[in-house]
Amino acid sequence: MDETVIQDRGISATFSRVPHSEPPHDGAIKGGVARSVKHDSAPRHVAGEAIYTDDIPELPGTLHLHLAMSAHAHAAILSMDLDAVRQAAGVVRVLTLDDIPGKNDYSPFFGDDPIFPEGLVQYVGQCLFAVAAESREAAFQAALLAKIEYAPLPAVLTVDEALAADLDLLPRHEMRLGDAAAAIDAAPHRLANTLHMGGQDHFYLEGQIAYAIPGEGDDMFVYSSTQHPSEVQHNVAKALGIADHSVTVEVRRMGGGFGGKESQPALMANVAALAARLTGRPAKLRLDRDDDMVMTGKRHDFRIDYAVGFDGDGRILGAEFDQAARCGYSADLSGGITDRAMFHADNAYDLQAARVTSRRMKTHTVSNTAFRGFGGPQGLLATERMMDEIAFGLGLDPFDVRRANYYPAEGGKVTPYHMEVTDSVILEMMDELAESSDYRARRRAIRAFNATSPILKKGIGVTPLKFGISFTTTHLNQAGALVHVYKDGSVHLNHGGTEMGQGLFIKVAQVVAEEFQIDLDRVKITATTTAKVPNTSATAASSGTDLNGMAAKNAAGAIKQRLIAFAAAKYSVPEEQVVFLPNRVRVGNEEIAFPDLVQEAYLNQVSLSAAGFYATPGIHYDRETASGRPFFYFAYGAAISEVVIDTLTGENRLVRADILHDVGRSLNPAIDLGQIEGGFIQGLGWLTTEELWWDKSGRLRTHAPSTYKIPTANDRPDDLRIELWDKGYNKVDSIYRSKAVGEPPLMLAISAFSALTDAVAAAGGYRVFPHLDAPATPERILMAVEDVKTRVRALES
Amino acid sequence: MSSQDAQSLSPAAVPIRLTINGTERRLQVEPWTTLLDLLREQEGLTGSKKGCDHGQCGACTVLIDGKRANSCLVLAVVKDGAEITTIEGLGQPGNLHPMQEAFIEHDAFQCGYCTPGQICSAVALVQEGRAHTREEIREYMSGNICRCGAYTNIVDAIEDVLGQSSTLREAAE
Hints:
heterodimer, A: 797 residues, alpha+beta, Aldehyde Oxidoreductase, domain 3, Aldehyde Oxidoreductase, domain 4, 3 domains, 5-stranded mixed beta sheet, B: 173 residues, Ubiquitin-like (UB roll), DNA polymerase, domain 1, 2 domains, elongated
């Protein structure tokens, strides 16, 4: 069809039949669901052409910003003399509290994250003021000239200190199932212990960045590397004292997010927008890596005390978990994160009777935030340690003790928050993995090896995983999409989700291609912007594809329905005789190429654009009674890891890991495998090498990759076998029966932590159970080995 | 990238000559400007990324006279006369380097931010001729962090190209 013909009103009025623009073909579409389609940005990634925020060509006059940081963990600010800063070469404007026209806050909800302090600083690295200069270097150099007078106050830095000081940041929460204390008391066997686990820096390769461009009137356009454009939009509007509709936030892609770009980017965006508003010039704020690591929130470190009663087979009769988290100085997302830790205290186990308590401790450290798993990994880790300890105490195989406790496939058992688990497949998966990984024989071989190896000790660990899918704050489970079909049959896709490398965009595009039955290259994926889809939730909680995929399917479905109605009326056939086939539509006995039907519909005044919406049905949680159905469904995984340690140095290596993971019916197996492997490696980092270390004055001393060790290619296990579970199927009506995959695999790395514990136990001839906290760095492993040997010697004497 | 031009440079700027992706460039460079900043901000070559600015993450890896280097640790002035190859110079869509093709083929990235550095590093690794096994590839690529953890596929891609190049070498011998 010729464009000029379409534009000609006279011809269109008499238009009756569109010829096929291409012959119909019978093959399936290229790139529908359930195919290993390449990441949409692949050709641009390998050529260095993919544009990230810092790569966007800068407008003339762009200013660069630097944030000055507090040197004290807790102090009153007596005075800030910034005269020398203002007079420094290249400085255009210094931004302080007095310059904020709106609200001095960048928090997601609680109003307790000041952009600039109001007389009080509460962590080392807290933003004091900002310098806008002609260059980044000038801004940085000028900030050094500030004279800040502090009156230091006592600082509480760790969970234990905060517990001792009774310094709660948020109200405590408790979940109860039956009478756990009575069950434990009556049990034939009991044990209790404590586990400390460290936090984790996101170390997204692309650091925090925002680039604000002032528009006419109140308008402000912000490029932000964020997982949550709507929240950045709202925060910028709030700080500038303008309506949300004046602010547009856009992000095409991030160089990694992992939760660290959910609430944190609002600070950078607010300051950049403020500078742009005050100077009328575009303003960019890109954090230096060290500043990023010092200033921005991390995974919460936890202390978890547990007590459990069990029978001689290791069957749990009751369990209690007292969780305490270091939240830092402000609430941020800590409420939801610590809730999720509680929601995962049961992992995959029917505890029968349980009490889970949570304390959210205030400390004078950076405000901890979302990180892949959102508290779930911490909740799980203590439970898995407990399972290992039960097995050790009874002299049983940890695999069998776990197996005795799984939620049954047939349902009927409830979690500590009173949700019935109806989709448990964990027993079947674990049995399959034990078989395929030759677990039993390898465990025997490891014991035999250890009996004759005085220095090197091997260990093996198993981890089943059940992870709840949905935002536990129920209203966040909503998403929108916008789909346009243009006259040539090409499709423009937009939705509220953001791309951080996880493959969300390609998966949602596959859904739209499948819905229209057109080749994937006919669907254009476009940057996330608050101007196209409003009021979105963060791309988080593993829910990106579940929510946005459904919203996009609904949008495409609405257009498709209009095309069906049009074709049925036009050709006088029943609607059920309009069938979308690959790249064409069968109408009665005729087949029409998709673009031709689209053109015809356009000429007949059919709307070819639709907004789609989706809200997860049937989920709720009542805080008062600590009960409900907070999750739409559960994702499951299984992992077995084998390690070797050097008992003289603590050096260690993961030599083999076997993983079986449930993604339901995979939308894109290649992308899902990548998420599983990447999540596992990231979890391995959290539990073995990545150590955040603050000194006694509250300064983070591991603030660069020189001191903070992220897994490299060499830390990947020598033998890593990952399979998608071929029986995976989502029992609830999720997008094409797939399951979320972003966060769950991170927790599979707990199997490596279990294996390290097993290897340390071997150093003491399996006589005493090790005290090994996370991360299990070589140093901690060595200390645990020494401790085990000391205790064994004490037993012998 | 910045719109910084020659006028905004300080009097300390010195003239140097670099061949960047095959094109000879005569440039005025302040002595403290790193090669990475020169590429990104003066030359508009934003494929090389600033990850940590400490030479510890590898996102800024480029080839200097064929050898890989962290361009954030190299002062541009000391490379006067050198030949620089960035990711943009290795190949472009439609005319990709075999290593770029292999990275696509093996899904050897997720967020893509480390990818230009990984590929430049991998191209040099193959040329160095030191890596022959997967273990050696992993060891010699451990200066390039991938936070998304796509290491298996990265090593697969490199092994693939390494296999092709050693086959070629054997054929030539």
